[in-house]
Amino acid sequence: MTIRYPRPLRPGDRVGVTSPSSGVPEVLRGRLDAAVRTVEERGYEVVTGRCMDGSTHISAPAAERAAELTGMLTDPSIRAVVPPWGGETGIDLLPLLDFEAIGRAEPTWVVGYSDMSTLITPLTLRTGVATVHGNCLMETPYRPPEGLASWLDVVAAPQGRPFTQTPPGRYRAAGRDDWIAEPGIRDLTLDAEGAWTRLDRNGEVDVDVDVEGRLIGGCIETLANVAGTPYLDTAGFAGDEPLLVYVEACEDDAFTVCRNLHGMRLAGFFDRAAAVLVGRTRAPGSPTLSQHEAVLDALGPLGVPVLADVECGHVPPYLPLVNGARGRVLHSAERSQIVQTLD
Question: What global pTM score does this model have?
Answer without folding.
Answer: 0.96
